[in-house]
Each structure stands twice: as structure tokens, then as C-alpha cells.
Design a protein that fits this description.
It is built from nine helices and no strands. It is an all-alpha fold.
């Protein structure tokens, strides 16, 4: 049975157990916060990870928190927020590995926005990151390769360079990029992102160029 409300005093005892290397700390962490964080993971990754993968992610995050407990700063966020942060990162890493991609992590952020029910903007951005990777992974081979290269470079990779790497013509690369952008934009809109597609803007280009 997990506790939906956070208890700062109990969390401090849990943290001290984790720092001491006591596995009772992991058990207490999961009892108090496992249910809430698992629900958080389901909301963020339900389109791309199954239940058993989400439970695996939760366990990986609990183990990671146990191993790095001495670095937890409660002034930056509650124990639950740190657990959610690590769970989110473990989920993204698992997703990236299964899709053969590089995970997009947000470790530079304070864990406090990941507290349940706090900053919806950050949670929406995280879902956008996941959905962009998911949509690109479903594209045909050439559009997938082109958009992945653009995303990793943070800009549009020159068509001749990609053409030489993929063994196609520059015209093929340009056409694949246009097709991939159009599909990406449409699928993100279908997933409810609408005007929030800032992350995909570098891949999208002007709308008139996609027709």
C-alpha cells in the first residue's frame, strides 16, 4: 500500500536508510511513493512502453536512487520528486535503447517541477520529447534517417552529406525530409501537442515548403 501524501519526516528516515545502504530504504521508498510514481510513468509513456517495462523502469529508478542517495538535495525537491525525475530518465533511456536512439534527458532541471501536480509545462515538454522519438521511429527508413540526423545535429544536415551516407541522391534526401516533417507535424497534432511543437520546430521547416 502506497501513501498518496508525502510525509517529510518519514522521507528523511527513508533517505537516511538509503544513504546507509540499507535495503529497507528501497522498500520504504516503494511503499510510500511507488504507486504515485508508477502512475506518473504510465501517463508519460503509455503509448510507447508496456506495463512490465514501466514496472522495470520504476525498479531501476529505485535502485539508482539508492546508489546515489548521498547526492539527493531535499531543498531542490522532495524525495518523491527526485524519484519521479530518476524514473523519467530511466524511462527515456529504456525507450531510446529499444529504438536504437540517443535518449533526450533533462538532468539540468531541478527535480521540483516533476513533483506530482506541479509544473504541467515541463511534463508536457517531456511527453513531447517521447512522442517525437516515437513518431520518427515509425517513419520509413530514409525519412527516419534524415529526421534523426537533423534532430541529433540540432539543425538541418546538408542534403549532399546525408545523400552520401545513405547512398541516395540529394533530391531523395530533400523529398524524404519534407515527407517526414509533414508526417511528424500531423502526428504530433493528433497526439494533442498543437502549438507546443517547439522541439520539432527544427525539423518542421515552413509549412508552405511541405506541400
Amino acid at each position: 500500500m502506497f501513501h498518496p501524501r508525502e510525509d517529510p519526516e518519514r522521507d528523511e528516515r527513508t533517505l537516511q536508510l538509503l544513504i546507509a545502504g540499507d535495503t529497507a530504504g528501497i522498500r520504504q521508498l516503494l511503499e510510500d511513493h511507488g504507486g504515485v510514481v508508477l502512475s506518473f510513468l504510465r501517463r508519460k509513456f503509455h503509448l510507447v512502453l508496456g506495463d512490465w517495462q514501466l514496472e522495470q523502469t520504476l525498479g531501476m529508478a529505485a535502485l539508482r536512487l539508492w546508489q546515489t542517495a548521498t547526492r539527493i538535495d531535499r531543498e531542490l525537491g522532495s524525495l518523491r520528486a527526485w524519484f519521479a525525475l530518476m524514473s523519467r530518465n530511466c524511462g527515456l533511456a529504456l525507450l531510446a535503447r529499444q529504438q536504437g536512439q540517443t535518449p533526450v534527458l533533462l538532468d539540468c532541471l531541478s527535480p521540483s517541477p516533476l513533483g506530482i501536480g506541479t509544473s504541467m509545462a515541463e511534463l508536457r515538454h517531456m511527453q513531447l520529447v517521447v512522442d517525437v522519438h516515437h513518431v520518427i521511429a515509425q517513419l520509413d527508413e530514409l525519412p527516419r534517417a534524415v529526421l534523426t540526423a537533423d534532430l541529433e545535429a540540432g539543425d538541418e544536415v546538408p542534403a549532399p552529406l546525408l545523400a552520401s551516407q545513405c547512398g541516395v541522391s540529394s533530391r531523395d534526401v530533400i523529398a524524404a525530409r519534407s515527407t517526414g516533417r509533414r508526417i511528424l507535424r500531423r502526428r504530433l497534432e493528433e497526439l494533442g501537442h498543437g502549438d507546443e511543437q517547439r522541439l520539432a520546430a527544427r525539423l518542421r521547416g515552413p509549412r508552405e515548403g511541405d506541400s
